[in-house]
Fold these 4 entries.
Entry 1:
Amino acid sequence: MSSRFTRIKLGAITLGIGAAALAVPATASAAPPATPVPGTNCTLGQVERSIDANAPEVARYLDNPRIRAEFERIVTLPDAARRAEAEQYLNRYPQLRQYRPAVEARIGVIENTCSRF
């Protein structure tokens, strides 16, 4: 698994878990779409557009300003911090671990297409 894939995967897993739990605190303001996603060749805007195109069921959650702000905050974190966030969600909501394979599969599509957007 590439480092780039891992970084996007952990950010999106965190989004999926946070959105599914609907327990997202409003902790950040919106990041500019041109913000780089660490460890990728994509910007935040490209990742979001790839989610819109490839994971519409997740994209719906991004319509909520609190969830979008949390997603943007987490996706733009350094790798270690993003991994820690994902583990915190999984520890808080262990029942969500069962969804990890499905989320990882969808993230692969997002990761492979974000540079096209």
Note: The first helix runs from residue 3 to 21.
Entry 2:
Amino acid sequence: MSSISSYKDLTGAVSVQMRAMRASQPDLMATFGQLAAAGTRDGALDRKTRELVALGIAVACRCDDCIGFHVQTLVKLGTTKAELEDVLGTAVYMGGGPSMMYATHALRALDEFSR
């Protein structure tokens, strides 16, 4: 089991720290916000597809914070468990055993954010 007690708590705590960084590093955070917006807006791929790709990368890179934020967004975008599981399967294919462990984290986050 992950050492994360709650993905809602995790994303909330990270959001607080990111707000603090916005105050101390406004140019960095504004630029990061622009990058995030550009990387997730509708284009040849729709926003949900791009968020699914981001989740797959988060799992393969083993970033629990990223998993939390992307799953939270995917729930808001109406992603089904089957869609999420397909992406997790690809992430495990690309990242092996460690990605398998983090894929279970993403399923846990889905369960939590879907309540």
Note: The mean pLDDT is 95.
Entry 3:
Amino acid sequence: MKKLLIVAALLFTTGCVSQEEQSEERIVTTSVAIAEILDELGVDTVVGVPTSETYTLPERYDGVDEVGMPMNPDMEIISTLNPTLILSPNSLEGDLKERYSNSKIDAAFMNLKSVTGMYKSIEELGALIGKEEEAQVLVDDFKTYMEDYQEKNGDREGPRVLILMGLPGSYVVATENSYVGSLVELAGGKNVYTGESEEDFINVNVEDMLEKSPDIILRTSHAQPEDVQVMFEEEFSTNEIWQHFDAVTNNKVYDLDNEYFGMSANFNYQKALEVLDELFYGSK
């Protein structure tokens, strides 16, 4: 049987999907952000969605079977749904690719580490599942928005920014390779950990952060935002090193809504850029 293979330089990778399967799709997604993309593309053949206590799934998929948490989907449940394709973010490819392969289910990993990566993946997904026109509408809207945004904001000198991604009980530093890092870059900010690593997130001691001398500190969370905020407040009040940061003494520490500043790119990027514009430049 003739196979269709789409591979786009780590932006979107997939196994083999037959032409016959394209017309009889049964899609499982392990990501809320990808569920939102499928909703925008008008895809009604989703048979499995992630379990999420933090984010709300599109109404289109009310009543669809849940397949577990994004980082640890339940392969037994997924197998019973007889999917033709599983869609997950490529940030989890290292954890999930072998599991999908062992289950002999075709899988694709979408790049949700940046806004531009997301739209490139939308374009490729549209070609894969027969939603080219719907995908092109979304891509064209994005291009128009970014042209206008860059024309308006392209000459502004942004601040030096430290980005902290909180987890319950701990936190890491977000590099420019993370989604939040890509938003800071689009808004003209200068991530103080640009060029430090190819990873999205890195572990760094507070003394090293102090040497980077950020103008602004942004704090967001992967999950359980209320618990993470309490954790951050305790860390900043009990670890006296933070009191030596100019960003702290100048009251330039900001907690961000993880609905806009989470782990994966999503359609809230315009709102996120508005928030950063206000924090960086004092303008909406």
Note: The mean pLDDT is 89.
Entry 4:
Amino acid sequence: MIPSVDVPPGDPRLPTSPDVIVVYSDLNCSFAHVAVHRLHETRDRLGLTGRVRFDHRAFPLELFNLGVNERPGVDSEVAVLGALEPDAGWQLWQEKDWRYPVTMLPALEAVQAAKHQGLHVSEQLDRALRKAFWAQSRCISLRNVILDVAAETGVVDVPDLAGRLDRGEARAAVIEQFESARDDRVVCSPHLFLADGTNAANPGVSARWVNGDFGVGFPVIDSDEPDIYRTLLEKAASLA
């Protein structure tokens, strides 16, 4: 059974096409890194690549929390979440401390800007930026790093993306998505929505913090049911 809340038709959180799953998340969120990896891998296994697409929406934690996710909290999650999906790509931050990202907004904007080239391009850039941060310790706050990662995907038109970033074309979309998520309309990063209103926050994973909150204690996974991704993807395919 998919945990969900009622979402009325026409709600801005829903996808605009029945073959799309909306994914609200932040790039600096380990739970979202697990979710996005599972979405891609499960879609491939089910043979649904090309039939079900992902519409990434920004859930900018730094706007909700008035600051980027604190590194002690992020570091405390890596071993725990990495154990759920080691193939997603993880490592503790290996670069200099002063190269740790202080904002994810430019990278979130890049994912939105890439949608002008299609959802497939946006999907690939989103996943590549997550791997660059979590698995390669790259500062995806920086324009040059974002464009390097985009080039490495082999599918992004980098000059087009650079132009849109330099003109600030995607900032409004990030802010609009932030506004659509406020007041608990989007519960957390990640939160997935299907066209019929089906939705799941942090799909399949139940977690709690012990010995202190985020940045002090550490997470404990009480349950993990990755098969929910098969259910969500098959349902999205049935709606198309």
Note: The chain has a mean pLDDT of 95.
